[in-house]
Amino acid sequence: MIELYTWATPNGRKISIALEEMGLSYRSIAVDIGKDQQFDPEFLAFSPNNKIPALRDGSQTVFESGAMLVYLARKSGRFLAPEGSPTYWKTLEWLMWQMGGYGPMLGQAHHFVHFNPDKSEYASQRYAQEAQRLTGVLDRHLEHSEFLVDELSIADFAIWPWTSRFSFQNIDLKEFPHVLRWYLQLAERPGFQRGYKQPVDAGDVPRP
Ligand SMILES: N[C@@H](CCC(=O)N[C@@H](CS)C(=O)NCC(=O)O)C(=O)O
């Protein structure tokens, strides 16, 4: 059985949602980052960047959520098109967009817009604007596509949990109708609802 080391955050939920949707059997192991459990030597031994999520699957360990999603897609044979196909590359484009931009920038927005607003006006404005810009990129793409790529994929699993923190980002999803449609459609899926509540139940999926 896969062991998922995780906490109730967007990066952690990417993987619990993926595991639920793939139907893989797993158990969650809570790593409470509010209590610095990510610094436990046992965890650092296979997740050296001291961040959740990470997984153990027999003798194989994987850290970094993007690598974990690719690993699980290959293991399950689901949610990633055959290697080298146009859809495979489109999926990796949006996965990397999330890993390199949408996640890190929204993470900064959570700090400077939600937790520590206006301590630095420059930082608040910079990350609020970047959150708007990135959500606009997503909206323009989803205007022409039901999911991030042709079918539900690991790109949706990567991006959706970050969108779900819209209230931390001062994002009014009603201003982004295509993101809102996609977000609510996926929020209806039992796999997303179960994955959202791992490893602890921090409430229902937020709805604007
Ligand atoms: N690039 C990493 C980012 C993971 C990450 O930022 N995890 C946060 C929680 S969402 C964390 O564990 N923070 C604890 C810390 O920084 O000490 C991934 O995608 O897996």
Q: Describe it for me?
A:
It is a single chain. The chain has 208 residues and is an alpha+beta fold. The chain folds into two domains: 2-79, Glutaredoxin; 86-189, Glutathione S-transferase Yfyf (Class Pi), Chain A, domain 2, CATH 1.20.1050. It is 52% helix and 9% strand. The chain has helices spanning 10-22, 41-44, 65-76, 86-115, 121-142, 154-163, 177-187, 190-196; strands spanning 2-6, 26-30, 54-57, 60-63. A four-stranded mixed sheet has the order 2-1-3-4, with helices on one face. Strand 3 and strand 4 form a beta hairpin. Helix 1 crosses helix 6 (154-163) and helix 1 (10-22) crosses helix 8. The radius of gyration is 17 Å and the shape is globular. The termini are far apart. The model has no long low-confidence stretch (mean pLDDT 97). Residues 9-11, 33, 38, 50-53, 64-65 line the site of glutathione.
Q: Helices and strands in order, then pairings?
A:
Layout: E1 2-6, H1 10-22, E2 26-30, H2 41-44, E3 54-57, E4 60-63, H3 65-76, H4 86-115, H5 121-142, H6 154-163, H7 177-187, H8 190-196
Parallel strand pairs: 1-2
Antiparallel strand pairs: 1-3, 3-4
Helix pairs in contact: 1-3, 1-6, 1-8, 4-5, 4-6, 5-7
Q: What does this entry show, briefly?
A:
With 208 residues, the protein is an alpha+beta fold. It contains eight helices and four strands; from the N terminus they run E-H-E-H-E-E-H-H-H-H-H-H.
